[in-house]
Amino acid sequence: MTTAQGWLQVGLFCALLTALTPLLGAYMHKVFRGDAILASSAGRVERGFYRILRVDPGEEQDWKAYARSVLVVSLGSWLLLYLILRTQGIHPFNPAGFSSGPADLSFNTASSFVSNTNWQFYAGETTLSNFSQMAGLAVQNFVSAAVGIAVAIAVIRGFSNRSLSTLGCFWVDFTRALLYVLLPIAFALALLFVSQGVVQSLAPARAFTSLEGAEQAIALGPVASQEAIKLLGTNGGGFFNVNSAMPFENPSGLVNVVQMLAILAIPAGLTATFGRMVGNRRQGWMIYGAMFAFFAAAVAIVYAAEAHGSPAQHLAGIAGGNLEGKETRFGMPGTSLFAVVTTVASCGAVNAAMESLTGIGGAIPMANMMTGEVIFGGVGSGLYSMLMFVILAVFVAGLMVGRTPELLGKKIGAREVKLTMIGTLAAPLLALVATAAAIASGHGLRSIHNGGPQGFSETLYAYVSQANNNGSAFAGYTGFVQPNAPGNAGAFGLTFADLLGGGAMLAGRFLPLVAVLAIAGALAGRTAHPDGPGTLRTDTATFGALTIGTILLVALLTFVPALLLGPVVQGLTDRMFR
Amino acid sequence: MKRDAHATVVALAVLTLVLGLAYPLAVTGVGQVAFHDAANGSQLTVDGRTVGSRLLGQGFRATRYFHSRPSQTDWNPSATAFSNAGPNGADTRAAIAARAAAYLRLEGRYDSGLTRAAIPPDAVQTSGSGVDPHITVANARIQARRVAQVRGLPLARVDRLVDEHTDGRGLGLFGEPGVNVLELNVALDQETAR
């Protein structure tokens, strides 16, 4: 049963998010205009960084140069992270003596973190050293998030620039995203988390004897520092295998709310930044409103479904909500909210076992990802992917009324619409083809944990999550076999799942990213026509509804058959499967 | 291209030092000084001996103790994993049914009115972490009858200890109240020893 108190929690969270959005949006607007900071004494660090990078902060890049910088820094990051994972055994800060990762799993993990996905085929606390977590994963949590924010800012400039045909300088946007947005907020969040019980220590695990005499160990590590950026950068890769369900990552109902706000803060705030940069704040609110409508509906459905309970428990004679895989301190509302927050944003952190959600409760997180991560979405990537759907909505509206489509006064041409189609259809195509390949070829069957429609759901979830750079999982699906041996001797990856998933993550990240930069490049410098009586207003609730419809149409047409085979079957039946 | 390559190499070197080492070390430094107890896992000591963490549930089998939620990992806090039990899984139903039968068998001896339909879901479904430190208040109220009788304490006294070790919602609003099982059991031992 849902409770009034539960709905109150949902409502309060929505109110907090809506209140935070314009504040952070205005701050980021200031940061990325940035020249005032740069000239002041506070800009000393920033200026020094440009000097050693040999970057001229006044430089302007066209879309190709901008995209090239993004790709080069991402390639460099990928190589560095792969190298760290493969040579883990020789690094310091490895108190448990974990050995280096296998090639296929390391490929998957490196692709996962560079693409801001943080898909976890690896098990954090039992395979990765503190060095790999800090110098490897945590750095990419920052870098991939900063890349996403930078690209979003560049794309907004494509809409707002009237005379320049350039998009700004990648290195400047990247630096400012790190220096003024991600690092300071992460530092404050990390300390808040430590004060509430999230561990932060470099000491080895502390052995103890339990009250009934069992010999156990408290696993310690630099958790809080990684936790903060894991959420803020919509990364999602946890220090522990069970992620934010682990009390050491997420110790209370209060921290849980802060974590959810941290996930959505930047993606939501960027809608307001967009409104300010294009000089039409209502336009920002229209985008926020469309995202929010999806979000609120998703939370309501998941909460109702989970509070209703699962068929398995009902048949076993147990009344009440489905608490399988959920923590007591979060309860139904705190878990349902988190499941939706993490899947609308391309975060992928989880505070409960997604696989143990009810059929409908699990279908909604999948559907959230299937929209292409445009309901708030990943930091930066959510906004730029949403803008492609806005272009699509303008195009559809233009066809209906027989006018040349225009957005913010700029004409949308055939090339932009084609690029939009590439950008919006890349991830669905990757997800469906990978799912089909994994199941039809039989190579993916080894990764499946549960049988029946649940096994199909696991597979579909895995590739939808990876292609859309989410990272959450029906965690039964595996790409890594880990024996219970010290240092992970004898562990190996499942090559097919690791490579297919890794490839999907990279393509799902960089195809839309380049496509949207190309669109922005084409729009930048295009003359903006003043609004006339025949102009289609794009900052109204009506247009918001049209945008929602467009997203629904694309996602539904693409994914309904696949959804029917897995979670919907489970949601509609009381049958048990082996 | 060459400029980007140079900037990438320098940036990654600097960022690895700043974000990969300086940032976590700074958080560790401040955390260890300002929030020493919390940063080290909120360890619970009894007579100078560490018996666990306030944030980690442990396995209890003795009838004199409150029991934690079922765990898929035998309450191991250093190798966590989900049960991944599906909502339509025949195994899931069987596991829940078996745990419900065991719960009824144990608690029914001290509360003859207890029915299967009245068993709180948290008592028979595994938690996310496998080390959930809490049980629901409803679950604790049922177990309190057993613990009180086994220890020869008045039920009202045990119920009051349950209340004292119930963590409320964050700011009174967020999350669900839960009874901290380890703290409660330690308090019971101290109560009985007195």
UniProtKB/TrEMBL annotation, chain A:
Pfam families membership: KdpA
Membrane-topology descriptor: Multi-pass membrane protein
Keywords, in A-Z order: Cell membrane, Ion transport, Membrane, Potassium, Potassium transport, Transmembrane, Transmembrane helix, Transport
GO cellular component, one term: plasma membrane
Domain of life: Bacteria
Cellular compartment(s): Cell membrane
Cited PANTHER family: POTASSIUM-TRANSPORTING ATPASE A CHAIN (PTHR30607), POTASSIUM-TRANSPORTING ATPASE POTASSIUM-BINDING SUBUNIT (PTHR30607:SF2)
Record's subunit section: The system is composed of three essential subunits: KdpA, KdpB and KdpC.
Descriptive protein name: Potassium-transporting ATPase potassium-binding subunit
Species of the source: Conexibacter arvalis
From TrEMBL, chain B:
Gene Ontology annotations for the cellular component aspect, listed alphabetically: plasma membrane
Pfam families linked to this entry: KdpC
MF annotations from Gene Ontology: ATP binding; P-type potassium transmembrane transporter activity
Principal subcellular localisation of the protein: membrane
Record bears the keyword Nucleotide-binding: yes
Keywords: ATP-binding, Cell membrane, Ion transport, Membrane, Nucleotide-binding, Potassium, Potassium transport, Transmembrane, Transmembrane helix, Transport
Compartments where located: Cell membrane
Membrane topology per record: Single-pass membrane protein
InterPro entries: KdpC
Keyword Transport appears in the UniProt entry: yes
Family: Belongs to the KdpC family.
Self-association and partners: The system is composed of three essential subunits: KdpA, KdpB and KdpC.
Task performed by this protein: Part of the high-affinity ATP-driven potassium transport (or Kdp) system, which catalyzes the hydrolysis of ATP coupled with the electrogenic transport of potassium into the cytoplasm. This subunit acts as a catalytic chaperone that increases the ATP-binding affinity of the ATP-hydrolyzing subunit KdpB by the formation of a transient KdpB/KdpC/ATP ternary complex.
Annotated protein name in UniProt: Potassium-transporting ATPase KdpC subunit
Natural source organism: Conexibacter arvalis
